[in-house]
């Protein structure tokens, strides 16, 4: 649960920066 919450927080941060669709998302989920 803690890991999931942490991941979601990172995703929200990257969405706020506009990086989720360009780089952030695919990099995290591919690992």
Topology record:
Elements: H1 2-17, H2 20-30
Task: Give a short synopsis of this structure.
The protein has 31 residues and is an all-alpha fold. It has helices at residues 2-17, 20-30.
What does this protein look like?
The chain is an all-alpha fold and 31 residues long. It is built from two helices and no strands. It has helices at residues 2-17, 20-30. α1 (2-17) runs antiparallel to α2 (20-30). The longest helix is centred in the N-terminal third of the chain and has 16 residues, at 2-17.
Which characteristics define this entry?
single chain, 0% strand, mainly alpha, 31 residues, 2 helices, 87% helix
SSE pattern, N- to C-terminal? HH
Cα Rg? 9 Å
The tally of helices reads 2
- Terminal Cα span: 19 Å
Q: Which whole number gives the mean pLDDT?
A: 69
Largest sheet: none
Question: Which range does the strand content fall in?
Answer: under 5%
The total count of strands amounts to 0
Tell me roughly what share of residues is in helical segments.
over 70%
- Computed structural class: mainly alpha
What global shape is seen? rod-shaped
Give start-end ranges of low-pLDDT stretches: none
């Amino acid at each position: 649960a803690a890991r999931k919450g942490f991941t979601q927080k990172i995703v929200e941060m990257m969405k706020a920066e506009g990086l989720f669709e360009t780089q952030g998302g695919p990099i995290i989920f591919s690992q």
